[in-house]
Design brief:
Helices cover 41% and strands 24% of the residues. It is of the alpha/beta class. Helix 4 packs across helix 5, helix 4 runs parallel beside helix 6 and helix 5 packs across helix 6. The radius of gyration is 18 Å and the shape is globular.
């Protein structure tokens, strides 16, 4: 049986996410090479990098969808690499995952999509679940679309519904995979503002994988830039812009 020690409880109070020397390879390709990362509650870290730099793999390792080759992942004081399925599931209930393409159920309306985690992981009554769903949809500005199907929503609206669903169990850690991908600048700005507000108001530790430099600058307390599996830069976005590192300069020039 998985147990939480006093040390884990103390770590829970300090950092919501602690990653140490995290490595992952696929066959002979090393995707992540001894990555370190800390994220406090209420803090948002944007993860940048070229395609194939390991950004999405990092998210999958954090939530336990893939196993690391080596290193440590502590989420809310729990060593994820040591947990069995039951232990992973307990920690996952305290995490939210916003998928790149929203991953809504096409046959369910907005209400049932957002209620899905509540149906499977709570004992709330029907009336309590509906009230919770309405509150979540108001939080993301989608309360007027409760009866619509995903096919009736724009890309930005689907993203908002996906975020509402990810918030259903009141997570302490949120993982966002390309939350503004494919959106026009105005809609993307709205999603960015929402992510920033949620982190601050709900004291959520957020990790946001993005290719969008403007988004990273708006939402993040810190950014981490990956290059060939290693961290090329970590710090405030303003320092990234001032960096003299050749890769950082090249990345900024080609991404702007």
């Amino acid at each position: 049986m998985d147990k939480t020690s006093a040390v884990e409880q103390r770590n829970d109070e300090r950092n919501a996410v602690e990653v140490r020397a995290l490595s992952k390879s696929f066959d002979s390709q090393k995707v992540l090479d001894r990555i370190d990362l800390d994220v406090k509650k209420g803090e948002t870290v944007a993860v940048l990098g070229r395609s194939g730099a390991g950004k999405s793999v990092l998210l999958k390792l954090l939530i336990g969808l893939q196993r690391a080759d080596s290193g440590s992942i502590r989420i809310l004081g729990h060593e994820m690499t040591a947990l069995r399925t039951s232990g992973l599931n307990r920690v996952r209930k305290r995490m939210g995952f916003s998928f790149q393409y929203s991953a809504l159920f096409d046959s369910l309306d907005v209400e049932r999509n957002v209620a899905f985690p509540l149906d499977h992981h709570t004992k709330l009554s029907t009336a309590e679940k509906r009230q919770k769903v309405l509150e979540l949809l108001r939080t993301v500005g989608m309360e007027g679309s409760i009866e619509k199907l995903p096919a009736q929503l724009s890309g930005g609206m689907r993203k908002r519904v996906g975020i509402a669903r990810a918030l259903a169990l009141d997570p302490e850690v949120m993982l966002f995979d390309e939350p503004t991908a494919g959106l026009d600048p105005i809609t993307a700005h709205g999603i960015d503002t929402l992510i920033r507000r949620l982190g601050q108001e709900r004291n959520i530790a957020s990790i946001v994988v993005t290719h969008d430099l403007r988004s990273a600058g708006l939402i993040s307390d810190r950014v981490m830039l990956l290059n060939e599996g290693r961290v090329s830069f970590e710090g405030p976005f303003e320092e990234l812009e001032r960096s003299s590192d050749p890769f950082v300069q090249q990345f900024l020039a080609l991404s702007s």
